[in-house]
Design a protein that fits this description.
129 residues, mainly alpha, 3-stranded parallel sheet, two-stranded parallel sheet, 7 helices, 5 strands
């Protein structure tokens, strides 16, 4: 499953409105969990500022989240996704991660991302996003 920044933030922030749902989805996930490096960097800004990045990386490791490796043609593919979808570049990175890994399920709480994911024929979790 591909995880975007909204989903990871919800999973690790107990005060987030989507926290319980995010934890439940991650807890029942089958297979590997993946994040694009740009989306991961978005989430790492806060822990880095707080001097807690190593602690946060340990949490990611415990959750089994892997970083999607860069692939040939990423720049052109991301530019094409940006033109096609009109999404911000970090949101395009979610779609690119799915393309590169061949994963067909994306976890997001962002409605614009969810709409674009569905338009690509992929499944969104939670379904109501």
């Amino acid at each position: 499953m591909i995880i975007d920044s909204s989903a990871l933030i919800a999973a690790v922030t107990s005060t987030d409105a989507h926290h319980d749902m995010a934890r439940a989805i991650l807890g029942s996930a089958q297979g590997d969990l993946w994040m694009h490096p740009i989306n991961l960097a978005e989430v790492l800004v806060g822990p880095t500022r707080a001097g807690r990045v190593q602690e946060f990386l340990a949490v990611l490791s415990a959750l089994g989240i892997h970083e999607v490796a860069s692939a040939p043609g990423d720049a052109a593919a991301l530019a094409q996704l940006r033109v096609q979808t009109g999404l911000r570049m970090p949101d395009c990175c979610v779609l690119r991660a799915a393309e590169v890994t061949g994963v067909s399920v994306v976890m997001t709480f962002d409605r614009q991302v969810a709409r674009a994911v569905r338009a690509e024929g992929l499944q969104v979790l939670p379904e109501e996003a």
